[in-house]
């Protein structure tokens, strides 16, 4: 018993000492002269309130943030928070993109978006100037796009070019003879018609645009947070339509942002949520309850955006096409362009539906190049029969399985979730225009400059496709 | 009042003697009588208003003599008068096509090129040292492809090899000057690629300009008169 008492006594003493030292520390921290450590450090967490929460920090999300801050009527009037799950952007589509911009689309809205983006990139140092930073060098190559069409696509290409010229794009049609004249390294077998963009088309460095947007947007007062959105807390309201049907409208009140490698999360109270999550947009939409309902109804219409893996290969060909080479898109879907001054080229090909690779990871399939890309390239450009692949990478398209065009604007039922996603491979080149459109929708209530009503969510329920014919 | 001041000025430099005059001349080692005469003249000009006025008058006389001789194909140059206006007889030349434009050191930009692209018979264009001409501007030059034979982009700070790639539309180009482009990453390789791209064109670029920095007044007058085929 004496033993037990002594051990208990000793344990009690040790505990008491620890407690005393803790109390001493607390008193010391309250007194002036040292840093106050009473409250836990939350500098890695997002703020507790924000007017707009943008899910996704790629080029589309940053573009929406930029235009929201640019078009706000009062300085500091809108608080914007951008939540990005991966600061290294290792899987984000923006950084892995080939970086092309072209106006050769079939939809007038797409052409206008591209034209605006071209003027945005041309004047990028006026838009994105930050006083302490050097001017941005986008490394833009104004070499244009050359699209080749076979016999069966020639009529469609002609009508597309007519629409493009009407919208103000500088595109011209070329016959196979003119093609051989201008680009002697092309083999025009199987080509009936070609369309060549003369101005405002080419490729640039997407990282530079991303960094430029990032630093400008930070200087305008947008908050950044690295974390994953795990939950939306929303409230519903039942309303009756004019036909006396009941409709449940939802409003998102809180966004739960979870930190990396921990269970810690921060509920952010917000007024508007923007889904710019690219390849992961469908998951974010599902979190908000979009698509939870009987199929065929508006509640049951899911966001039809899914990630699709695309490969890009870089090769060296010493006798390849010269400095004037545009980005050539073949009749088979294979495309290539020059990269730098040293006879390097990069390109790839969109796989058919059967050949679609598994988007679970970004591993590169080199056999795909050998079997599905190289034969078409070698046919079109005989110089490419001898080439050596240097490197390759893979990236995601946020592919809209419905009609391969973007989704922009509010959801009809979840009234404060706006979409800016699903651009299926041309999100980078349309980001400035789309960002401005979404900002106008939020601040003014409707599209002011470019009318993107064909891109609203409603079309998935109504079954009206806004089909884009020129996809690479 | 003037006399003592003058005498003071006369005395002090005299005392400095030869060293003072040499320093005033600015030359490191004055050699030859000509240099000595010039520095003496400069020294006098700096110290006497009368000498300065006389030299100014003589310079004006020289300039008007040069202007008299400076005629283009036997016609006077049409210049703006002291109010910046052109004389009404300029309107007689409305139908005459413009063959050469010298926009060196001009602040022309992307939108400003609208004015040049309307000139359907332009044969020679000089955009030397234009600070706002960049790759985007070069991509606009293709409408001049039928007539343009001479183009100079020397010294433009924002033109890189990416913009030079869109000059391949200009198949009638016979002379292209791409010297002194600081934004071009590899001038030698770029010159080779541009020469391959435009086989009929003489590309003047970087061979002799490496290491030699020519001042603007010593650059060859290749754009003063248009080159006719």
TrEMBL record, chain A:
**InterPro entries found in the cross-reference section:** FAD-dep_OxRdtase (IPR006076), FAD/NAD-bd_sf (IPR036188)
Domain FAD dependent oxidoreductase: where? 51-441
Molecular-function annotations in GO: oxidoreductase activity
| Needed co-factor(s) | FAD
Q: Which UniProt keywords apply?
A: Electron transport, FAD, Flavoprotein, Membrane, Mitochondrion, Mitochondrion inner membrane, Oxidoreductase, Respiratory chain, Transmembrane, Transmembrane helix, Transport
Subcellular location, in the record's words? Mitochondrion inner membrane
Presence of the UniProt keyword Oxidoreductase in the record:
yes
Q: What is its main location?
A: mitochondrion
Q: Name one GO cellular component term.
A: mitochondrial inner membrane
The topology of this chain with respect to the membrane is: Single-pass membrane protein
Among the GO biological process terms of this entry, one is:
mitochondrial respiratory chain complex I assembly
Q: Which PANTHER family does UniProt cross-reference here?
A: FAD-DEPENDENT OXIDOREDUCTASE DOMAIN-CONTAINING PROTEIN 1, SARCOSINE DEHYDROGENASE-RELATED
Assembly and interaction partners: Associates with components of the mitochondrial respiratory chain complex I.
Q: What does this protein do?
A: Required for the assembly of the mitochondrial membrane respiratory chain NADH dehydrogenase (Complex I). Involved in mid-late stages of complex I assembly.
Q: Please state what the protein is called.
A: FAD-dependent oxidoreductase domain-containing protein 1
Gene source species: Colobus angolensis palliatus
Automatic annotation (TrEMBL), chain B:
Its domain of life?
A: Eukaryota
InterPro entries on file? LRR_dom_sf
Q: Membrane-spanning regions, if any?
A: none
Q: How does it assemble?
A: Interacts with incompletely assembled mitochondrial NADH:ubiquinone oxidoreductase complex (complex I).
| Biological role stated in the UniProt entry | Required for the assembly of the mitochondrial NADH:ubiquinone oxidoreductase complex (complex I). Involved in the assembly of the distal region of complex I.
Similarity section: Belongs to the ATP synthase subunit s family.
Protein name, as recorded: Distal membrane-arm assembly complex protein 2
Write down the species. Answer: Colobus angolensis palliatus (Peters' Angolan colobus)
- Upper classification of the organism: Eukaryota, Metazoa, Chordata, Craniata, Vertebrata
């Amino acid at each position: 018993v004496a033993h037990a008492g002594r051990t208990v006594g000793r344990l009690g003493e040790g505990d008491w000492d620890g407690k005393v030292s803790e109390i001493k520390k607390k008193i010391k921290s309250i007194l002036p002269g040292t840093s106050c450590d009473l409250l836990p450090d939350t500098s890695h967490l997002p703020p507790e309130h924000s007017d707009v929460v943008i899910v996704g920090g790629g080029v589309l999300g940053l573009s929406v943030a930029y235009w929201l801050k640019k078009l706000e009527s009062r300085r500091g009037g809108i608080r914007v928070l951008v939540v990005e799950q991966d600061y290294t952007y290792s899987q984000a589509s923006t950084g892995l993109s080939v970086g092309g911009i072209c106006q050769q689309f079939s939809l007038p809205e797409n052409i206008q978006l591209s034209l605006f983006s071209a003027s945005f990139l041309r004047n990028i140092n006026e838009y994105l100037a930050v006083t302490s930073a050097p001017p941005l060098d986008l490394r833009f190559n104004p070499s244009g796009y050359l699209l080749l069409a076979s016999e069966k696509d020639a009529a469609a290409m002609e009508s597309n070019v007519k629409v493009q010229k009407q919208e103000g794009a500088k595109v011209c049609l070329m016959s196979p003879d003119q093609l051989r004249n201008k680009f002697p390294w092309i083999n025009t077998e199987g080509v009936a018609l070609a369309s060549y963009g003369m101005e405002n088309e080419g490729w640039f460095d997407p990282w530079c645009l991303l960094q430029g947007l990032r630093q400008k947007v930070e200087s305008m007062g947008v908050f950044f947070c690295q974390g994953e959105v795990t939950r939306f807390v929303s409230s519903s309201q039942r309303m009756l339509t004019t036909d006396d049907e009941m409709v449940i409208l939802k409003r998102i009140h809180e966004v739960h942002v979870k930190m990396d490698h921990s269970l810690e999360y921060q509920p952010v109270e917000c007024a508007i949520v923007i889904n710019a999550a690219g390849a992961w947009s469908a998951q974010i939409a599902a979190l908000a309850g979009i698509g939870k309902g009987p199929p065929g109804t508006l509640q049951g219409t899911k966001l039809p955006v899914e990630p699709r893996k695309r490969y890009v290969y870089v090769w060296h060909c010493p006798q390849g096409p010269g400095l004037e080479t545009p980005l050539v898109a073949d009749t088979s879907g294979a495309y290539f362009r020059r990269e730098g001054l040293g006879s390097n080229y990069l390109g790839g090909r969109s796989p058919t539906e059967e050949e679609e690779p598994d988007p679970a990871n970004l591993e590169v399939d080199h056999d795909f190049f050998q079997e599905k890309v190289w034969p078409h390239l070698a046919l079109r450009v005989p110089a490419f029969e001898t080439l050596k692949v240097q490197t390759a990478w893979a990236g995601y398209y946020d592919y809209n399985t419905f009609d391969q065009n973007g989704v922009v604007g509010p959801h009809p039922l979840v009234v404060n979730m706006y979409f800016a996603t699903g651009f299926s491979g041309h999100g980078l080149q349309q980001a400035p225009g789309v960002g401005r459109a979404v900002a106008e929708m939020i601040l003014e209530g409707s599209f002011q400059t470019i009318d993107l009503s064909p891109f609203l969510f409603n079309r998935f329920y109504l079954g009206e496709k806004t089909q884009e014919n020129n996809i690479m | 009042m003037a006399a003592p001041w003058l005498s003071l000025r006369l005395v002090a430099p005299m005392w400095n003697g030869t060293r003072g005059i040499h320093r005033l001349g600015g030359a490191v080692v004055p050699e030859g009588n000509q240099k000595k005469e010039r520095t003496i003249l400069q020294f006098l000009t700096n110290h006497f208003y009368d000498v300065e006025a006389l030299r100014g008058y003589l310079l004006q006389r020289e300039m008007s003599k040069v202007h008299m001789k400076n005629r283009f194909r036997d016609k006077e140059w049409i210049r703006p008068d002291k109010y910046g206006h052109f004389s009404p007889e300029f309107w007689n030349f409305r139908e005459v096509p413009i063959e050469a434009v010298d926009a060196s050191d001009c602040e022309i930009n992307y939108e400003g090129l609208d004015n040049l692209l309307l000139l359907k018979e332009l044969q020679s264009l000089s955009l030397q040292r234009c600070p706002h001409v960049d790759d985007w501007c070069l991509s606009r030059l293709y409408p001049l492809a039928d007539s343009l034979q001479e183009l100079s982009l020397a010294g433009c700070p924002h033109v890189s090899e990416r913009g030079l790639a869109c000059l391949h539309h200009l198949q009638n180009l016979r002379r292209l000057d791409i010297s002194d482009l600081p934004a071009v990453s590899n001038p030698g390789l770029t010159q080779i690629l541009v020469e391959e791209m435009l086989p009929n064109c003489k590309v003047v670029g970087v061979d002799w300009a490496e290491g030699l920095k020519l001042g603007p007044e010593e650059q060859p007058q290749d754009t003063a008169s248009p080159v006719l085929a």
